[in-house]
Amino acid sequence: TVCPLSNLKLCVFKSLADHNLKSMLEQGLVVTINSDDPAYFGGYINENLIAVQEEVDLSKAEVVQLTRNAFESAWLPRATKDVYLGMLDAHAA
Fold first, then answer.
1. How many of the other CB atoms lie within 10 Å of CB of 28?
2. How many Å apart are CA 31 and CA 85, to the nearest integer?
3. What pTM value is reported for the model?
4. Which residues lie closer than 8 Å to 10 by C-beta, 6 or more apart?
5. What is the CA radius of gyration of the chain?
6. How far apart are CA 22 and CA 46, in angstroms?
7. For residue range 26-50, what is the model confidence (pLDDT) as tens digits?
8. Closest CA to 31 of 42, 41, 23
9. Angle at CA 80, nearest 5°, toward 79 and 84?
10. What would the DSSP string read from start to end of 29-69?
11. How far is 58 from 65, CA to CA, in rounded Å?
């Protein structure tokens, strides 16, 4: 799990452009975008994902992969995951 806005507040990275998220995806890690204490660190999951889309050099396919990873990692029945993944694929197309 990666919490980009939290990483900025904690000075792990100087900017999101410096974040190692893209490198983790390129290495095949199952990365998901999450939030860490949103009231304190300034962002729920959507804000974290939007910030990453705006500031990290990710392709559309990489953004879709982040979302796919979230569904694959969720504690949901396989059939439910497949429904959501089908919706994701249709939207991404």
1. 7
2. 16
3. 0.86
4. none
5. 14
6. 18
7. 999 999 998 888 888 888 888 999 9
8. 23
9. 120
10. ----B--SSHHHHT--HHHHHHHHHHHS---HHHHHHHHHH
11. 10
Amino acid at 42: G
Tokens of 23: 């490198």
- How many other CB atoms are there within 10 angstroms of residue 35's CB atom? 20
| 21 contacts 52 by C-beta, under 8 angstroms | yes
Distance (Å, whole) CA 61 – CA 58? 8
DSSP state, 11? T
The predicted structure's pLDDT at residue 39 = 80
Cβ–Cβ < 8 Å for 5, 42: yes
Name residue 58's amino acid: L
In this structure, the number of other CB atoms found within 10 A of the CB of residue 87 comes to 11
